[in-house]
Amino acid sequence: MLKLIYKDLLLPFRSSSYLWAFVINNILLVFVLSMAIPLEFIRETAIGIFWAVMFINASQFTLKAVEDEFEDEAIFSLLTSRLTHTHLAISKIISTTLYLMASSIVNLLAIAVLFRLQKIPPASFFVILPIGILGIATVGIFISLISIRLRFRNLSFYILSIPLYIPFFVACVQGSDNFRVEWLLLLLFLISMYTFILIYFMEKEI
Length: 206
Prior knowledge:
- With 206 residues, the protein is mainly alpha-helical.
- Helix content is 83%, strand content 0%.
- The mean pLDDT is 77.
């Protein structure tokens, strides 16, 4: 399973165009928003912008990671080895979580520089950050595995993302800005539910 995680983490580095697209896309997105939002509202919206960028990053990575497995037919050779469906699902979630943790550093630096923020985010933000990223990774892999079986996979992915990402987005933004146990419990519940559904889906469909 460690080899599978390692393989997924190398995905952005297989193509220089993918890596540059990721960096430029994030910086441009934050830059455009920093120009569009008045300075007096920057502090209030910075956390929401950060999480919006993180969801976009997750969409790019999870769909690409799952597409590579099916297009190369690597998933079928993996499942004939000692790896189980559960190992495969968990490895995808772990690799996506690690990728998003790394990208969160880039996003935080970009927002801090372009928005000219002088204060660090509240402590509640750093409490929600790892749990929120794990949740984004879980639902992202779940949506990717569903949409990969459909004809218009990219369109299907984004259509499914809108309703399924909203609870995570609301919990992450609200919990980061004003921490309450209810937001943390909601994230943990959603992560557990989607992990169970993901493993069940893979056992039945793949």
